[in-house]
Write a structure and sequence with these properties.
Layout (H helix, E strand, L loop, with lengths): L11 H13 L5 H12 L5 H15 L3 H16 L6 H14 L1
């Protein structure tokens, strides 16, 4: 995608929104999702970002290796911030991760 080379410029909310939009439209581009996963792991993500990103990956390719790797990489971020998660973010994250495995 045209956005892939510019991923380093994205803010957490922008990355989360783009992945959510792609997933809502059932769009999957393996190289973009792999790059987005790496970028997400190095961002300061809030609970909503984490929940949306995990939901997006699970929505388009729940059993894909990139999705599973992303879930495993982002779960520690989720557990460190668990007290900041709203109930919907907890359920969305739990469901997304459950779909991956």
């Amino acid at each position: 995608t045209a956005a892939e080379p510019r991923l380093r410029e994205f803010k957490p909310q922008e990355l989360s929104n783009m992945l959510w939009g792609f997933a809502t439209n059932s769009f999957f581009h393996e190289a973009f999702y792999a790059s987005a996963s790496v970028m997400a792991q190095h961002m300061d993500l809030q609970a909503q970002h984490l929940a949306n990103i995990l939901w997006a990956f699970a929505r388009v390719r729940s059993k894909h290796p990139v999705t599973r790797a992303t879930a495993l990489a982002l779960l520690p971020h989720c557990t460190r911030q668990l007290e900041t998660f709203k109930p919907q973010e907890v359920s969305s994250t739990a469901l997304a991760v459950a779909k991956c495995f």
